Amino acid sequence: MKLKSNISKIVSLVMLAVTLVSCKELPKEVEVVERRELCQYDDPAVYRSSYHSWIGKQPLKWRKVSQTEFRLLNYAAGEATQIAVGQVNGGGILANLNRWKREFDQEVLENLDGLETFEMLDGRKAYVVQLRGTFQKKMSGMPVKAEDWGVTGVICDVSGGSLVTVKMMGPEVEIENEQENLINFAKSLRLNILQTPTERSKKDTTEDKADGGGY
Amino acid sequence: MAKKKKNIGQYLLDFFSSFLLAVICLVLLGLLVWFSTLEMQDIGLSRALEKYYSHKTVFVIPEINGGKMIYLPLPGAYWVCCVLFVNMSLGGILRLRKGWRNIGVVISHMGIASLLLVGFVDHHESIHGKMEAFQGAKYDYATKFDYSSIEVSEFTAEGEKKRPYVIKHEMIKDLGDKMRRFTFKDLPFDLEVRHFRENVAVLNAANKVRGNKSGEIIDGFFLHPAEFDAKMDYFNYGCYLLVKPKNGEPDRKLLMCRSIGFPQTFDVDGKLYGIEMPNEIWNMPFSVDLINSVGEYYPGTQKASKFQSTIAWTGDDDEQDRIQTIKMNHPMRYKGFTLYQASWNEPVNGLEYSGFEIVTNPADQWPKVCLWISAIGLCFHFALKLSKYLGRETRKEKGSKQSDE
Predict the structure, then answer these.
(1) Contact B11 A65 (CB under 8 A)
(2) Which of A74-78, A87-91, B229-233 is predicted with the least confidence, judged by mean pLDDT?
(3) Angle at A207 between CA A189 and CA A38, to 5 degrees
(4) Which residues on B lie below 8 Å from A18 (Cβ)?
(5) Could you count the other beta carbons within 10 Å of the beta carbon of residue B338?
(6) Predicted complex ipTM exceeds 0.85
């Protein structure tokens, strides 16, 4: 009887100790003091996956958001504006610009004459199209319609029919405010091409730092 | 003569040093290993290890064949090993009759008990991480397995990142639907983290319909709880953030997920900040440059059977690269870090790729020593037994010869 009573006392004490230990809870407010040293993870030029193929200098007021299957770089601005960098293989510049025009129910272009142009991606010609009005399109089978909508689209042939597009879409008022940011961003875009160790060792490290950066 | 009454201490000592307890522990460990191996197919390696072998698991109920419960509650393997360690120490070493006849047994028991102690150290002190290396760049970091983090960085006007603040996994893993506020001494905002989930998908609101368990739509995207993929063995952590500027600017809502892979950005006080949710970044004291990686598949499958990598690596103290080939059972070791060849894939976008597992473990080489100790003990004991047997046989022969004479 005495033995059973002693054992039950020990068991009760152990269970009480376990219960007390497991009741620890973190506070509702925490001050964060730990900072990590920078490493190659923080260098946008270091290749981590196919989603890091393109990099550009992000305007301060843009918010970088999750990319999707067709949007290699994806940003938000203002209340409802989205900016997406995409890659299209095939169709040509004219066909893709006309596809955008049809979304605004506008007449298609016969040629690229008269369109605003500038240089991006090491001197390649980029075409700009400005679309305003009612946007109407089917997305995943569902019709999408937006009044007083705008698109500013930039399209550039990288090589042999492989196109890069930078498309900004949103309310007309917001689109007008972001024109300069869009063109500057497009001009800053570059492909994250890796160098072989031999080529890398030939480059001056100071030059590397100047080239780097840009989210 | 009346038997001397034992006190509670003696009963406990007898129980914990008994051979019966050792057998019970070994049977339990056998069951735990068997069930964990079966369940690993459904829930993945890391979750199976957490469920069966973690010190946080007191009891486990096995579930096999896609969640079918086996109503056989078993104690967690960690605690069974603790009991076995006590049992071996008391019964196999302390209470064993000492003498040259038993010295081999004592030594081998010491080796096994040390091995259990090594497991204890490994469980509590080792850290495992993964380094994904593509050809053509140097990698000096790994990401820790199953440890999420939230990193908050400021960017300079040129777009360069400053040293990030790190909110570690321990500070957010218990949140669920609750909220916790994080403050930073040098930043002009506080952060509220909520709705932390272990596994989510980031869905585009333009293409996907929100469900009951879906999170809020932010910038056209929302988080939805996703099933854990046992084959990928990959936790896609996610949460929602509220950035609260201290200067009265409006709050900003952000959506965080490990799979996004880069900082979600916003501006406060005219400066750009970014927040992202990688698995905890682990700085390495060396950098690795993948020269090439070679692999073979099992015939008719896409499962890699053999893979190895040749790397050029530079330690903190080194002036030049060292070239080394890493393959199965031939890891690289440097300053307490061990780098194993863990995975391999066909070249991605023309770039060769290798996945390395990085482990730090103060007890890294101890199992080898423990096994040598056990082996020496067993060899000594069996050598002793053999010599006794041979001696007995010789004496028998002599005896029978004498009787014949």
Answers:
(1) no
(2) B229-233
(3) 80
(4) 58
(5) 17
(6) no
Report residue A165's pLDDT band, with 50, 70 and 90 as the boundaries.
Answer: very high
pLDDT single digits (tens) B70-112: 788 899 999 999 999 999 888 888 777 777 788 888 899 899 9
What mean pLDDT value characterizes chain A? 76
Phi/psi zone of residue B44: left (φ > 0), alpha (ψ -120 to 50 degrees), beta?
left
In this model, does residue B262 exceed pLDDT 50?
yes
Give B187→chain A minimum CA distance, Å: 11
Q: Which two tokens stand for residue A91?
A: 């169709």
**pLDDT above 50: residue A208:** no
Give me the residue from A35, A46, A63 closest to B165, CB to CB.
A35
**pLDDT at A14 (0 to 100):** 60
DSSP state of A40: G
pLDDT computed for residue A201 by the predictor: 37
| Chain mean position to CA A120 | 18
Which residues numbered 162-201 in A keep a CB inside 8 Å of some CB on B? Answer: 194-197, 200
**Comparing A27-41, B234-248, B278-292, B294-308, which segment has the lowest mean pLDDT?**
B294-308
A174-181 long-range contacts, CB within 8 A, separation 24+: A174/A77, A174/A78, A174/A79, A174/A80, A174/A81, A174/A150, A175/A81, A175/A132, A175/A150, A175/A151, A176/A150, A177/A78, A178/A59, A178/A77, A178/A78, A178/A81, A178/A83, A178/A152, A179/A152, A181/A59, A181/A61, A181/A62, A181/A77
Please report, in angstroms and rounded to a whole number, the separation of the first and last CA atoms in chain A.
75
Mean pLDDT computed over A198-205: 37
The CA-atom distances, in angstroms, between A148 and each of A101, A180, B143, B210 are 15, 20, 46, 27
Q: Do B255 and A66 touch (CB under 8 A)?
A: yes
B163 CB neighbours in chain A (<8 A) are: 35-38
Chain B residues close to A36, C-beta within 8 Å: 151, 163-164, 166, 281, 283
Contacts of residue A144 in chain B, CB cutoff 8 Å?
206
Distance in angstroms (rounded) separating the CA atoms of residues B275 and A215: 12
Q: Rounded to an integer, what distance in angstroms lies between the CA atom of residue B179 and that of residue B388?
A: 72
Supply the pTM of this predicted model. 0.74
Residue A183 distance to chain B (closest CA, Å) = 17
Contact (CB<8Å) B141/A40: yes
pLDDT at B344: 81
Other CB atoms within 10 Å distance of the CB of residue A96 = 20
Burial B62-94 (b: 16+ CB within 10 A, else e): bbbeeeeeeeeebbbbbebbbbbbbbbbbbbbe
CB-based contacts of B58: which residues, under 8 Å, 6+ apart? A18, B75, B76, B79
Distance from CA of B163 to the nearest CA of A (A): 6
What pLDDT does B232 receive?
66
pLDDT in the model for residue A45: 65
Is B379 in a helix, a strand, or coil? helix
Phi and psi angles of residue B362, each rounded to the nearest 5 degrees, phi first: -60, -20
| Closest C-alpha to A84, from A70, A103, A101 | A70
Mean pLDDT, all residues of chain B:
87
| Residue A21 pLDDT exceeds 60 | no
Cβ atoms of residues A181 and A61 within 8 Å: yes
Residue written as token pair 């004592």: B106
With residue B184 as reference, give the H or E element that holds it. Answer: strand B179-184
